[in-house]
Amino acid sequence: DLAICSSSGVVVFAVVATPIVKFIVKNWMDDPTVGVRPGDAFYHNDARYGGVHNADQSLFIPIFDRTDSDRPRLIAWAGAIIHEGENGAKEPGGLSPSALTPYDEGLRIAPMKVAENYTFRRDIVNLFQNHVRDPLLQLMDMRAKMAGAKRIEERVLQMAGEQSSELVVAALRHTLESTEAEVHRRLAEFPDG
Do 134 and 142 touch, CB atoms closer than 8 A? Predict the structure, then answer.
């Protein structure tokens, strides 16, 4: 039940983002050891939770309307997904054509919190960097994803401030319902059988 907006690029990323965010909301939102708060960032690349393959690493941040500072309200999520050129697979590069098991495919990250207050946890970044051949690339791409997600958050909150967070949520809801209706309309045009 998520409206996904995607810029140009790999459209499949817009589709595979939904299960990841749903997993985070279902499992970590109310978990006292993890939680989901303003400024948190979650990272992922394991296709068993959503995604295409291990080379696609994603970062998601929750967007909270903080008008009522005592009770910030989650209104959306922002994210960025990059196909990494190196992920510690059996062979150098983002993919390993000779992989015979999932253990040959490199770094596998179940959805997990990697940052608080928009600051990456050094211990987790170090863990990721120790599993790839190019540690600097891993760090730089994580930072790039965070910067992109923060820019989306900034624009969404700007719109919420200029209009209202209810209007932002309503616009996302309208996008979701309009898309569903259009998909049903197009499927109904397919020849029967």
Answer: no
Closest CA to 156 of 78, 69, 50, 57: 78
Please check the confidence at residue 12 and state whether its pLDDT lies above 80. no
- Mapped onto helix, strand or coil, the DSSP state of residue 56 is strand
Paired tokens of 189: 């045009």
Report strand pairing: 56-65 vs 41-44. Answer: antiparallel
**Tens digits of residue pLDDT in 76-133:** 999 998 888 888 988 888 788 888 988 888 899 999 999 999 999 999 999 999 999 9
Class of residue 34 by CB neighbours under 10 A (exposed 0-12, middle 13-18, buried 19+): middle
Residue 70 has phi, psi (to 5 degrees) of: -75, -30
* Displacement of CA 165 from its chain's centroid (Å): 21
Of the candidates 34, 54, 70, the one whose C-alpha atom is nearest the C-alpha of residue 128 is 54
Exposure of 134 in the CB half-sphere (CA atoms within 13 A):
13
Q: Is 181 exposed, middle or buried (0-12, 13-18, 19+ CB in 10 A)?
A: exposed
CA distance 88 to 167: 43
Nearest to 161 by CA among 65, 64, 61: 65
